[in-house]
Design goal:
Order of helices and strands: EEEHEEEEEEEEE
Radius of gyration: 13 Å
Helix content: under 10%
Structural class: mainly beta
Length: about 120
C-alpha cells in the first residue's frame, strides 16, 4: 500500500513558526531518502529539504538556516520545522521519497498541507 498523509499546515504571520508532519507507508519510507516539496500558486513544485535514512540533511538555499527536516524511523514519519517564515514560503507542502514514489508509472503524491504566511 502506498500512502502519504501530510498535516500541520495553517495560517501564520511573517516571522512565525510552524511544524508540518507526514506519515508515510513503509514501502515509501523505509530505507529511503525522504524530502519535503512545495508548490506555490502558478509555480512548479520544488524540493526544499531532503534527509537520508541515516539522518543527513540538505536544504534549498531559500530555506537554509530557517527550516529543519527530521525523521522518526520507528513511526515512518518525517517532519519539517519552519522558523522565521516569510510570505514567499506560502505554498502547499508535500512530502515524498527522493526521488518521488511512483505507482504504475505515475508519480504519487499525497493531498499536501497548505501553509499560508501573512505579511
Amino acid at each position: 500500500q502506498v500512502q502519504l498523509v501530510e498535516s500541520g499546515g495553517g495560517l501564520v504571520q511573517a516571522g512565525g513558526s510552524l511544524r508540518v508532519s507526514c506519515a508515510a507507508s513503509g514501502s515509501i519510507f523505509s530505507g529511503n531518502f525522504m524530502a519535503w516539496y512545495r508548490q506555490a500558486p502558478g509555480k512548479q513544485r520544488e524540493m526544499v529539504a531532503v534527509i537520508t535514512s541515516g539522518g543527513s540533511t540538505n536544504y534549498a538555499d531559500s530555506v537554509k538556516g530557517r527550516f529543519t527536516i527530521a525523521r522518526d524511523n520507528a513511526k515512518n514519519t518525517v517532519y519539517l520545522q519552519m522558523n522565521s517564515l516569510k510570505p514567499e514560503d506560502t505554498a502547499v507542502y508535500y512530502c515524498n521519497r527522493f526521488p518521488p514514489a511512483s505507482v504504475a508509472g505515475t508519480t504519487y503524491w499525497g493531498q499536501g498541507t497548505q501553509v499560508t504566511v501573512s505579511s
